[in-house]
DUF2993 domain-containing protein
Amino acid sequence: MNTRRTVLVTVSALAAVVAAGGGANAFVEHEAQQRATDAVRSRLGDSASGVHAELTDPLAGLKTLTGRVGTVHISADEVRREGTSFAVDAALHGVSTDGSAHSGSATVTVGYDELAERLPEPVRDMKPGTDGSHLTLSGPVGGLGIPVTVLNTVSASPDGGLTITPKSVRVMGQQLQIDTLTSLPGMDGFADQLGPRTVSLEDQLPDGVRLTGAEAAEKGLALSFDFSPDMLRSSGDAKA
């Protein structure tokens, strides 16, 4: 998965929302929201679907007269970039009509079917999914082709990386520790294939963007990001 490009697209979408308030000629909330939606859709491209922007503060439309918009929530059900499809859900707080905001955050969700096409070689034949709390990998492993489901935790590491850690496996209806499974004949290399693995993102993210969390959600792997005030103050000039 091209994480850097995914995040850059999200940042551009947020910047488009901020810039959408710059005209300050929309005195009605509906019109202001439509302008923001149009700006985000333009940034995300024609392939984006379910694009929506919402001004969530009371009397947000009238607040544009004072140079403020308040909180803007944006979402897109599907955005496609460089062969990867993902959903975006983001919020900007303290948005002003001069193209700035006080704070912001976003969640990018990559579906499990998309992840399946981008798994590393050792687990490429396994199917990703979730049991409600873990990132699961299911499929035959080892020389005997035993079907297993590996339960992994996902988290944001303190240094800005994404860490995937195998916790246990389900085999024939039983849940076992990984070292119990790897003690079986033909399974001794299985643990090495699984990890744990950490993908460093710190050097790949734009300045002012920080990975804050990761979750195996119902619809896919969800990565959460925060945006610094310095980045949001200048985001009105960002390019897609």
The chain has a mean pLDDT of 76. The chain has two domains: 7-112+201-235, 124-200. The helical segments are 3-20, 29-44, 60-63, 112-116, 178-182, 190-194, 229-234.
